[in-house]
Amino acid sequence: MKRLLLAIFALSSIANAQEPTSSSTTTAPTTEIQAPVSAPTTTSIEEEDEDDESREAAVSTSTTNGNVEKAYPKFEFTSYGYIVFGQRETFKTVQNLTPITRREMDLAEIAFEGEYILSDSSKIEFEIEIEHGGVGTVVEFDPFEEFGEFEQEIEKGGEVVLPELYYKKTWKKTNTALKVGKFPLFIALGSVQTKPHMYASILASDLEARMIPLNWTETGVQVEQKFSDFTARLGVVSGLNSEFFRTYNWIGGGYQRHFETTNADDLATLASIEWGSVAKGKGFALSYYAGNTTGNRYKVDKLKEDAEVTLWTLMGGYKFGGFGFSGEVIEGTLENSNLVSAANATLGGLAKPKAFAPLGHKARLESLQIYYDFASIRLTPFLKWEHVNTFEEVEGNINKNPRYDVTRNSGGLMWFFDQGAFLKAQYATEVTELDGLPETYQANIAFGFDIDSFK
């Protein structure tokens, strides 16, 4: 791990040495909000992806008495959010086989994204998310407990969060970029396609959260290198905590958002190679994640053996005229999953997994979405198939649980009925491999806005 960190900083140092020194004059710092449209004269910052490129093209130069001065720092702002109305079939508890129908309304999310552009080659990006209406104590009903149970939690993660805050430096001569801070992991569609206009369904993936952390971001350092249409990434980030791995979301609960600080005794390595732009639906990528999780446990004496998580992801999409498709395959392995399950079963208090300690050794997720974009009326109907199995293989005395071998089929549409305002409708059916458990349905309508859709 130390060698990998040294390699990352060595690459950035070499790129820095090759970058010519700027002779531009900088004015006193100013804070101004610019609309995401091009000014008459622009200086483009090296793109993180095509969204960044379009925003950064708005950085303008000002002319005073014939001398060109760059007004830095500058501030840019964008936002998105949506409300969901839904009806679904669920079960009273995990022991019930007869579904019941429930209706829900949810102010799901509103996000504010900002960029402090420090120069023509550096910036600070951040994002603030308000989820499910704001901060406070929340009462939840857990139907998967043996007899059903009400729980009261003060939610830090998932209510008001700062999922992204990082510094990015770009060396244009070598097409190299360095990120330091908390940034999205390039590991799944849910953490790459982060804006509602990038996908027709209500969520980029309906089943990712049953296997890995949803909208996964971590703190660390990452180097990006562009080669023509290819982008390579190599990073070291904070790892997961296996104390919070659970049957119903495999390693998803290990995302360390429950506490004020993140345990970093075990770090993770992240690498990817991308062609085109997966975020824009015109590219493909292969990603790799690996990191031990034992050292990040709070109860250090419960587990001594390694519990490394390994993920391989193939994801992407493309468009041919109005027709397009997107999809992903995620293969995951949890080392010594039976020992992790046994150690977690002895935890107490809020960390007690109850009946959800058993974990699969291997997990797999697959998804495919096809759609057609009627650009003239901004209407995009779609069909989607997803499958996840977090008990694909097991170790030791752990038994496979067919309830978590899930197939979900859905269809719907996305319609931008006004400037930046959208409506999404989606109907889905879900079935598991558990004998006797009937197929259930879910119908949702989402209203929202996405300022980035103007671009």
Automatic annotation (TrEMBL):
Residues 1-17 form the signal peptide. Residues 18-65 are annotated as: Disordered. Residues 45-54 have a biased composition (Acidic residues). Residues 18-36 have a biased composition (Low complexity). Keywords: Signal. This is Porin.
